[in-house]
Amino acid sequence: GQSLEQPSEVTAVEGAIVQINCTYQTSGFYGLSWYQQHDGGAPTFLSYNGLDGLEETGRFSSFLSRSDSYGYLLLQELQMKDSASYFCAVNDYKLSFGAGTTVTVRA
Amino acid sequence: DAGVIQSPRHEVTEMGQEVTLRCKPISGHDYLFWYRQTMMRGLELLIYFNNNVPIDDSGMPEDRFSAKMPNASFSTLKIQPSEPRDSAVYFCASSPGEREHNEQFFGPGTRLTVL
């Protein structure tokens, strides 16, 4: 089966940088995905890492180290609209989601 | 494209009643997934289909739950009989294919309340 760990909550101010770590244990692994979910909304795809290294998409970046079974999502230049839950998910022909990290951005 | 469509958006029913949730995936997507989200258990995969065929239903909680995909543009998740512990948000998601398996497109969800 799959097991993922990520922090439950993070609070930061506008303009700051936040890093959400994710460690995983899995019997099969193709990659690590990140999804964002605003309160009352649906999860939306943010990024995917199939290989080791950093993927950058605008203000968001994601990193993967397969040897360490570790990844992170980096949110830069935080904005109020970034207040949401962020989920890491292991891709093994299907997605297994972590419990999510609630990011609260304060003015 | 309209995205993944789910109906109803909200459902309130009484314990013991049958509940049917519906999903229309994005046209051309080969994979369809049903998830359940609760505060206690997070986001759980219930079942997924590839080209209308159920591939993995290991997440279906018990025999009261069943899912079908009669064609490429429609799927249902049925709960019979429903119980209060089934109260959750149920999401349907679709994905274009195995190479893009990493990105799933979620519908708006159905918020189910069983009294």
Any key phrases for this structure?
heterodimer, A: 107 residues, mainly beta, six-stranded mixed beta sheet, five-stranded antiparallel beta sheet, 11 strands, 0% helix, globular, B: 115 residues, seven-stranded mixed beta sheet, four-stranded antiparallel beta sheet
Characterise this structure.
The complex is a heterodimer of chains A (107) and B (115). Chain A is an all-beta fold. Chain A contains no helices and 11 strands. In chain B, strands 2, 4, 5, 6, 9, 10 and 11 form a 7-stranded mixed sheet that branches. A 4-stranded antiparallel sheet of chain B has the order 1-3-8-7, with no helix packed on it. In chain B, a hairpin with a 2-residue loop joins strand 5 and strand 6 (53-56). The radius of gyration of chain B is 13 Å and the shape is globular. The model of chain B has no long low-confidence stretch (mean pLDDT 94). The interface between A and B is medium-sized, with 20 and 19 residues.
Largest sheet of chain B: 7 strands, mixed
Total helices of chain A: the number is 0
The secondary-structure element order of chain B is EEEEEEEEEEE
Tally of DSSP β-strands of chain A: 11
Proportion of residues in helical segments of chain B: under 10%
Low-confidence stretches of chain A: none
